[in-house]
Design a protein that fits this description.
Strand content: 25-35%
Shape: elongated
Number of strands: 9
Order of helices and strands: HEEEHHEEHEEEE
Strand order of the largest sheet: 2-8-4-3
Number of domains: 1
Protein backbone atom coordinates (compact mmCIF):
# COMPACT_ATOMS: atom_id res chain seq x y z
CA UNK A 1 0.00 0.00 0.00
CA UNK A 2 2.82 2.43 0.87
CA UNK A 3 4.64 1.71 -2.41
CA UNK A 4 1.48 2.39 -4.38
CA UNK A 5 0.91 5.70 -2.55
CA UNK A 6 4.56 6.71 -3.11
CA UNK A 7 4.20 5.89 -6.82
CA UNK A 8 1.05 8.02 -7.10
CA UNK A 9 2.61 10.99 -5.27
CA UNK A 10 5.83 10.75 -7.33
CA UNK A 11 3.86 10.61 -10.58
CA UNK A 12 1.69 13.57 -9.58
CA UNK A 13 4.74 15.68 -8.67
CA UNK A 14 6.40 14.74 -11.96
CA UNK A 15 3.31 15.64 -14.02
CA UNK A 16 2.86 18.96 -12.20
CA UNK A 17 6.56 19.74 -12.73
CA UNK A 18 6.27 19.04 -16.46
CA UNK A 19 3.19 21.25 -16.71
CA UNK A 20 5.00 24.08 -14.96
CA UNK A 21 7.98 23.74 -17.33
CA UNK A 22 5.69 23.75 -20.37
CA UNK A 23 3.15 26.44 -19.46
CA UNK A 24 4.90 28.81 -17.03
CA UNK A 25 6.45 31.76 -18.92
CA UNK A 26 10.02 32.71 -18.10
CA UNK A 27 10.96 36.37 -18.21
CA UNK A 28 13.96 37.78 -20.03
CA UNK A 29 15.44 40.94 -18.57
CA UNK A 30 16.06 43.87 -20.89
CA UNK A 31 16.98 47.53 -20.63
CA UNK A 32 16.48 50.55 -22.82
CA UNK A 33 19.69 51.25 -24.73
CA UNK A 34 18.54 54.13 -26.94
CA UNK A 35 15.40 56.08 -27.72
CA UNK A 36 15.34 57.95 -31.04
CA UNK A 37 12.71 59.92 -32.90
CA UNK A 38 11.12 58.15 -35.84
CA UNK A 39 12.88 59.15 -39.05
CA UNK A 40 10.04 61.19 -40.55
CA UNK A 41 6.52 62.23 -39.62
CA UNK A 42 5.19 60.01 -42.46
CA UNK A 43 7.03 56.94 -41.14
CA UNK A 44 4.57 54.61 -39.44
CA UNK A 45 5.31 51.09 -38.28
CA UNK A 46 2.99 51.12 -35.28
CA UNK A 47 0.96 48.20 -36.66
CA UNK A 48 4.00 45.90 -36.36
CA UNK A 49 3.25 43.52 -33.48
CA UNK A 50 6.77 42.18 -33.11
CA UNK A 51 10.25 43.60 -32.93
CA UNK A 52 13.44 43.37 -34.95
CA UNK A 53 16.28 41.34 -33.43
CA UNK A 54 19.80 42.58 -34.19
CA UNK A 55 22.79 40.60 -32.97
CA UNK A 56 25.36 42.47 -35.04
CA UNK A 57 26.11 45.95 -36.32
CA UNK A 58 25.21 44.89 -39.88
CA UNK A 59 21.80 43.62 -38.77
CA UNK A 60 21.06 46.85 -36.91
CA UNK A 61 21.91 48.83 -40.04
CA UNK A 62 19.80 46.48 -42.15
CA UNK A 63 16.70 46.80 -39.93
CA UNK A 64 16.91 50.58 -39.60
CA UNK A 65 18.00 51.50 -43.15
CA UNK A 66 18.05 48.78 -45.80
CA UNK A 67 14.79 47.06 -44.86
CA UNK A 68 12.78 50.24 -45.49
CA UNK A 69 14.28 51.24 -48.85
CA UNK A 70 11.43 49.67 -50.88
CA UNK A 71 8.76 51.31 -48.70
CA UNK A 72 9.99 54.81 -47.92
CA UNK A 73 11.90 57.49 -49.81
CA UNK A 74 15.39 58.58 -48.71
CA UNK A 75 13.91 61.53 -46.79
CA UNK A 76 11.47 59.32 -44.89
CA UNK A 77 13.93 56.77 -43.45
CA UNK A 78 17.05 56.94 -41.31
CA UNK A 79 20.28 58.16 -42.82
CA UNK A 80 22.87 55.37 -43.05
CA UNK A 81 25.59 57.54 -41.47
CA UNK A 82 23.34 58.26 -38.48
CA UNK A 83 22.65 54.56 -37.99
CA UNK A 84 26.31 53.66 -38.47
CA UNK A 85 27.31 56.12 -35.74
CA UNK A 86 24.53 54.78 -33.52
CA UNK A 87 25.66 51.18 -34.06
CA UNK A 88 29.23 52.09 -33.14
CA UNK A 89 28.00 53.05 -29.66
CA UNK A 90 26.53 49.59 -29.01
CA UNK A 91 28.37 46.57 -27.62
CA UNK A 92 27.48 43.63 -29.89
CA UNK A 93 29.95 41.29 -28.18
CA UNK A 94 27.99 41.32 -24.90
CA UNK A 95 24.46 42.28 -25.98
CA UNK A 96 21.82 41.68 -28.62
CA UNK A 97 19.45 44.53 -29.49
CA UNK A 98 15.68 44.65 -30.01
CA UNK A 99 14.17 47.42 -32.13
CA UNK A 100 10.58 48.40 -31.40
CA UNK A 101 8.58 50.93 -33.36
CA UNK A 102 6.39 53.56 -31.73
CA UNK A 103 5.62 51.56 -28.59
CA UNK A 104 7.47 50.68 -25.42
CA UNK A 105 8.26 47.16 -24.41
CA UNK A 106 6.78 46.15 -21.05
CA UNK A 107 7.76 42.50 -20.82
CA UNK A 108 9.62 39.73 -22.67
CA UNK A 109 8.71 36.11 -22.02
CA UNK A 110 9.27 32.65 -23.40
CA UNK A 111 7.99 29.14 -22.76
CA UNK A 112 7.22 26.09 -24.91
CA UNK A 113 3.51 26.91 -24.64
CA UNK A 114 4.03 30.50 -25.84
CA UNK A 115 6.19 29.21 -28.68
CA UNK A 116 3.37 26.94 -29.79
CA UNK A 117 0.59 29.54 -29.47
CA UNK A 118 2.24 32.88 -30.34
CA UNK A 119 4.85 31.96 -32.94
CA UNK A 120 4.59 30.84 -36.54
CA UNK A 121 8.15 29.75 -37.31
CA UNK A 122 8.04 26.05 -36.51
CA UNK A 123 11.26 25.39 -38.46
CA UNK A 124 13.46 27.80 -36.44
CA UNK A 125 14.51 25.98 -33.27
CA UNK A 126 15.66 29.11 -31.44
CA UNK A 127 13.32 30.31 -28.69
CA UNK A 128 11.03 33.19 -29.68
CA UNK A 129 10.73 36.05 -27.22
CA UNK A 130 7.09 37.05 -26.87
CA UNK A 131 6.63 40.78 -26.14
CA UNK A 132 4.03 42.59 -24.06
CA UNK A 133 3.54 46.20 -25.11
CA UNK A 134 2.63 49.45 -23.44
CA UNK A 135 -0.66 50.68 -24.94
CA UNK A 136 0.59 54.22 -25.69
CA UNK A 137 1.66 54.91 -29.27
CA UNK A 138 4.62 57.31 -29.49
CA UNK A 139 6.65 59.02 -32.19
CA UNK A 140 9.86 57.23 -31.20
CA UNK A 141 11.81 54.10 -32.02
CA UNK A 142 13.13 52.21 -29.00
CA UNK A 143 16.23 50.05 -28.96
CA UNK A 144 16.52 47.64 -26.03
CA UNK A 145 19.41 45.40 -25.13
CA UNK A 146 19.47 41.89 -23.72
CA UNK A 147 22.42 39.74 -22.79
CA UNK A 148 23.99 38.01 -25.79
CA UNK A 149 22.36 34.62 -26.27
CA UNK A 150 22.30 32.55 -29.44
CA UNK A 151 19.10 30.83 -28.29
CA UNK A 152 16.66 33.71 -28.75
CA UNK A 153 14.95 35.31 -31.75
CA UNK A 154 12.01 37.56 -32.61
CA UNK A 155 8.62 35.85 -32.94
CA UNK A 156 7.49 34.85 -36.39
CA UNK A 157 4.32 35.68 -38.26
Amino acid sequence: MKKKMLYIVTTAVFVVGLCILYYYPRKVSFELAKEILKPHKEFDNSQFIGFEYADSKDELIYWLVEHYKPFYSQEQRYDSIFVENLANKFDFTRYDYLITYQKKLKDLQHSPYLTKTADGLYFDKRTPLIPTWDSVQTDKVYIYRIKKNNKFRAPGP
